[in-house]
Task: structure prediction
Amino acid sequence: MGLLKKIWNSKLWLPITLVLLVLINWLASSYHTRIDFTDEKRFTLSKPTKKILKTLDDVVQVDVFLKGDFPSGFKKLANSANEILSEFKEVAGSKIQYNFISPDEEMEGTTVKWGDTLSALGLYPYNLKSQLKEGEKQQLVYPVALMRYKEKVLPVKLYNGIPNIGRQEINSAEALMEFELANTIYKLTHDDKPMVAYSIGNGEPPVGSYITYDLVESVLRPNYKLFTFNLNTQPEIPDTFKLLIIVKPTQPFSDIEKLRIDQFLMRGGKLLFFIDKLNAEMDSLRIKNEVIAYDRGLELNDLLFKYGARINSDLVMDLQSDKLPFDVNGNGQFEFLTWNYFPVFASKSDNIINKNLGFVSGKFVNSIDTIEAEGIKKTILLSSSPNSRTIATPALISGKENVNAPEDDKFKKANIPVAVLLEGKFQSLYTNRLSQALNDSLQKYDAVFQQQCLTDNKIIIAADGDMVLNSVQKNEPLPMGMNPYTYGTQQQFQFANKDFLQNCLDYLINQSGLSEAKSKDYTLRLLDSKKVTAEKTSWQLINIALPVLLVFLFAIIYQWWRKRKYTKK
Result:
């Protein structure tokens, strides 16, 4: 204490203080930490995310296209993106570089605007309208980012909800943002892609067709090693495949084909089904203006039933549906009306597959029932709105149905399941019923029959094959989940079909370990409006008047102390 008093009374106190301040600032800039006081650890990155960031061997450049005079919701989204990326930079240092760009800015060295480039990449904007004093203002908002790593570029969607972004939508987007950004970095920096088999041989759409373009070129090939597999001619699904995806088969499955699927599952392979049980196509409806929906006879009932689900021979109709053009008055003037056979689904569960997922569109969709299966957990992933119904087959579908408004009192069913996740140790369909012919086919290739999964496994079943196929317009494939009739009009809307598919794939064969980041849940804390009104004046005084009073109080005490000190001398 004596030494400190001597320094204070000497002329050295000022330079010593300055040196200490410089040293403290240098230490703070070089060695610092943060403390997250939020209950949900909003500002704490998950361990898998940190691991990915710490192992970066080159710079990841992130361009976020949320710069501009946007509505408050998208401004908050931009601030959240900035906060998350700053947290990434805290961990990765100079290996993460990011900036915010206006979509109206021109790309460097060109006269092309960024917005045009993003649209060309299939990253469509939200068309927002707002009322100003000078009139109506129209804005195109791109809540997306582009990530660059070495020679690779991948897009990141920062928001997938409705255009009228509100508190709940912002909250959901913020909760998912860490996963979206970290998962894209993982895909950019890792070449160890899982092997995926696309089933052919039962009338599935070919891999090279227009209607599978987005499925194959945007989802499967960029992220997985994709192979086609013919269940009819090839003896066994190799264990090198992590997943078998079956999309809209039109021909029945034989027992030997079902046995190959069954044993692949028993050995640990994952299954992803997108099945149209009924034959009902828009092409037939365009020609005759009516079509009869009937069962395709795929012979998959017993297989799916054994695993815990049943696709019903019916069609889901919903008042919450996509739109088609109809000649209402018969004068050639078409209007967009909802088409109840094209339901739009939302997700009701908290599973990470559909966490913060937007609307998913369907076409001639069947309902699904879950069946009692020992040890199998069932999670409904997609279901209808509270105003829906089912119609049994054979069903006559007519384009004339929308001449009159649908009778709302018929749409009384709620939450009809159309997609389900099954998890657990599945029992083989062929336990105690393996025929000699099937047994001989197994022994021919030295395959050992397994009656049960060795470990927990997963299956996802969606009762709509068109859900993951894209439409075609003028011989050009459209993005998955885009209505070809409303495309390019004011009614255009990008449904979240591709996001749902990607989430299913990530859940079934996720290798990044980012499920922890995706399962984050931010609590939406709303102010009590009555309490705000009652205590408004008190809090205004505390926040405005109290700091000023404290400054005056400090000044008075300081002057008194100085006067007392120097008066004694």
